[in-house]
């Protein structure tokens, strides 16, 4: 038994139809941007620069900037951490190798690069919008917030780097490993074509 509005009723409401169309178009553009990490990160750098300029010229919103910094630090920790933490979970063979004789297992991030980029970009956009509402401009002594964030960043990164060294993993992919040219048997024996 159908509802009183019928089967296609939600699509007939203009706002719902517009929201669905917008969501579909937005997802399409996100999907098209996936193979272009340099362009995505340059766009995020532009958004971050706009936010920094806005906060600088307004001379305020230090709490918003501090919250943004804490959120980005949290995302960075997820980006640098393995999906399966060898300290927390003892699994049968699904953890990172700890000795040179162990089988190679690729590094899988807890937070993939695309989601990391998307969350940071959204965070800068939300923080930028928040700078237009005076309710978020709480008067604080910003040097203390900056000092506290720097101390938090250093301590967190020190702990993360020690974790990387202890379990011997590198969370960055420098690129595909290149090998020397393979010589054919004829060329290596001195005969040429």
UniProtKB/TrEMBL annotation:
GO biological process, one term: protein retention in ER lumen
Taxonomy of the source species: Eukaryota, Viridiplantae, Streptophyta, Embryophyta, Tracheophyta
Gene from which this protein is expressed: LOC120259307
Protein name in UniProt: Protein RER1
TM stretches of this protein: 63-81, 116-134, 140-157
Species of provenance: Dioscorea cayennensis subsp. rotundata (White Guinea yam)
Gene Ontology CC terms, in alphabetical order: endoplasmic reticulum; Golgi membrane
Location(s), subcellular: Membrane
UniProt similarity note: Belongs to the RER1 family.
Topology relative to the membrane: Multi-pass membrane protein
Record flagged with keyword Membrane: yes
Keywords: Membrane, Transmembrane, Transmembrane helix
